[in-house]
Amino acid sequence: MIESYLNFVKEYPLLSSAVQIGILGTIGELIAVRIRLKRWYFFGPGPVKLFSKILVWAFLGITFKYAFTGFFAYIDAIIAKGWWFNVAKGSFFYALSVSFFANIIYGPVFVTFHRFTDNKIEGKEMDWNSLTKAWWSLVWFWIPAMTTVFILPKHLQIGLLSLWNIALGIMLGYFAVQSQKNKE
């Protein structure tokens, strides 16, 4: 089974990114809602909203694969120009550099797009205060998490990123419950 997975992610990098992020990103979101509401909620009656969320996550998975490729090249280019620290490829600091720039440049666009599509799917207005909190997750969660992702071989990166989405869902659900308790 593991060999089938590895062959799939190596032979079909964009499709496998869409599938992994589509499924596990949605699961992370469902877990966050489950923790917050103390019941399962699948975004409304019928499968349309849930399927729409899976499609948005899948699309984002493809953009992640492109962004990862682009930001590795970006780091190589700015190192070559002498505009960044001369860190060795494959090192922790190289992975941290890729993560840092990916999250400060691509991250806000991703978070805004994802929040916008979520709100459209759920029929909500954009909550800019909530969006600001989501942007901060790029600093406290995603830069460290993606540093671990970028240390891995390229074909395994999206898989770990997908698992980090579930971890973030658990944390966000817990934070929402704690925030609600503090207001009471």
TrEMBL record:
Keywords on record: Membrane, Transmembrane, Transmembrane helix
Membrane-crossing residue ranges in chain numbering: 12-33, 54-80, 92-113, 134-152, 158-177
Protein name from the UniProt record: Mpv17/PMP22 family protein
Organism whose genome encodes this protein: Zobellia amurskyensis
